[in-house]
Amino acid sequence: xxxxxxxxxxxxxxxxxxxxxxxxxxxxxxxxxxxxxxxxxxxxxxxxxxxxxxxxxxxxxxxxxxxxxxxxxxxxxxxxxxxxxxxxxxxxxxxxxxxxxxxxxxxxxxxxxxxxxxxxxxxxxxxxxxxxxxxxxxxxxxxxxxxxxxxxxxxxxxxxxxxxxxxxxxxxxxxxxxxxxxxxxxxxxxxxxxxxxxxxxxxxxxxxxxxxxxxxxxxxxxxxxxxxxxxxxxxxxxxxxxxxxxxxxxxxxxxxxxxxxxxxxxxxxxxxxxxxxxxxxxxxxxxxxxxxxxxxxxxxxxxxxxxxxxxxxxxxxxxxxxxxxxxxxxxxxxxxxxxxxxxxxxxxxxxxxxxxxxxxxxxxxxxxxxxxxxxxxxxxxxxxxxxxxxxxxxxxxxxxxxxxxxxxxxxxxxxxxxxxxxxxxxxxxxxxxxxxxxxxxxxxxxxxxxxxxxxxxxxxxxxxxxxxxxxxxxxxxxxxxxxxxxxxxxxxxxxxxxxxxxxxxxxxxxxxxxxxxxxxxxxxxxxxxxxxxxxxxxxxxxxxxxxxxxxxxxx
Length: 555
What we know:
mainly beta; Neuraminidase; four-stranded antiparallel β-sheet; about 40% strand; globular
């Protein structure tokens, strides 16, 4: 999955090595447990980078050579205070730079939510590479606003959760949701950064008052209620790709659901199944894991929603062909549980996508960009004409071109954003509707407008760079819940972003998703771009680097 982009993130490897020398025993990595290759190839980006750092024998040779050179150079590195540098800021109209990062390090894979009773309370999450300097090695960032996202009030890193007696740091794949009474929840991967064992899905709970007054950073006081809702100490198992939701549905009030992919691999067998856990509002009680995907062998990308009808809707993707080296077909599925229940109805098939953006070496490659991407369906639910209606969006290639080789076997050309809907809990689905309009389009996200009249769909698009199909913008659509028609189309980014510009990540990684949240005819879109120019670690000249931005727009 690492692909051909080693030359693009040589500084990232240096920073990982530097952080490890500042905070980790050097010999520990050499004695860490070795995971089967099949499992390593399936990991999310945060765990993958950390695992290759501590297991160079399993990394591609290019990585090992660069790692050894970086570690040698990092031996003389000393921690220092970093003060704000002069920086070229983002262009007007890009939204709020939703971090106070003075290091020039990346933030990506954005999530966003707002409180239903107080729209000024906004919480976002990121993979925050400032975690490379955290002595506890937490990596999942949180970003908090009390004025609707116009400014950033406080921020930090999600603290460790306990697995037995061991404190296990946060490790990326952020997701945020506001529950009843403006309780704020965050989800994260948690794992030992050396061995990936134990691994866990962490869920956190706090309040706006606490986040407004706590010290920020990695202080545990910012997130007083937190736990591993599921964990594993099996060295052949890794819990990955979490998503959470909090809402009404149970007899006792708010339910908190977490879904995740459970990778279980040995040298002779492999399964990736989707599982779910339900907790109460305080996180004091959680169910045992529930198998959602049945006997499917290879799944990815779970999503969970508690609809306005109180039912729990869980979607995911079954992947066929990846394990056998055949052309990959992605099959989005849906299951629904009654309000307050942990018993789900039958597996419903949404579509059979033969033109999915596939997992292929470096996690899928578009025709004119380098970062990894794969088809990732997202769904939401809205009451329409008195009945719950499920909306699912996903990205798929217009055509897939075999290009040979092992690291890049497929080029995905001009992907589009697709929509299907169901009014009978997934038993039947509408025909496919294409929402995008030219160019390459990817990373779709959807949100029903709480208290408003429509739905919001956002995605990255390259259609404003028609010659090279490379530079990206964020496009926001307003959909009619009744007709599924596009009522409005907005380009949210004033200048197209160059996604390969970050000096650490280059074109290697911009996240696997970003998120839109809609409420009362307004949308919050949390995305990343390389607009700001600043000195990397207070050295050299100001250069473009990756930041998370929050854009507010009417629907």
